[in-house]
Amino acid sequence: VSTQSTGDKLYIESLYGHQDMVTGMDSFLQERVVTVGGHDKTLRLWKIQEESQLVFNGHKNTVLDCVSMLNEEHFVTGSQDNVLAVWHIKKKKPAITQLQAHAKGSWISAVAGLKNTE
Predict the structure, then answer these.
(1) pTM above 0.70, yes or no
(2) Residue 23 near residue 36, CB atoms below 8 Å
(3) What's the 3-state SS for 36-92?
(4) CB atoms within 10 A of CB 68
């Protein structure tokens, strides 16, 4: 993941961690970005100022496709296993999981969340 300044769009740095392509990203505050990495099945919360990251695991044998930050502490993910999950930044596993969120044989390719909600 490459970071750029928003004003002049200049390259700042690259963030390394995912073992495969990044399939989704969102941010709530400028100094935090959450990403999902396709086939590596991980979510990463990047703390830009501290130059650190938190790694989350929870979806099994699938590709994570999308992520949306809800507030500073929660985000939601969707994936090809047809699971929606709500996460808390202090827990490594989902706080809430909805199995079979769509019709059988479907998968979740996009999520959106109302900012500042739980």
Answers:
(1) yes
(2) yes
(3) EECCCCEEEEEECCCCEEEEEECCCCCCEEEEEECCCCEEEEEECCCCEEEEECCCC
(4) 20
| Residue 18, pLDDT above cutoff 80 | no
The partner residues of 68 in beta bridges, in order of sequence, read 76
Structure-block tokens of residue 49: 């100022």
**Residue 110 region, left (φ>0) first, then alpha (ψ -120 to 50), else beta?**
beta
Q: How confident is the model at residue 50 (pLDDT cuts 50, 70, 90)?
A: confident
Residue type, 58: G
Task: Quote the tokens at residue 111.
Answer: 């999520």
Residues in the chain: 118
pLDDT per residue over 62-76, tens digit each?
Answer: 667 788 888 888 888
Q: Of 31, 113, 27, nearest to 78 (Cα)?
A: 113
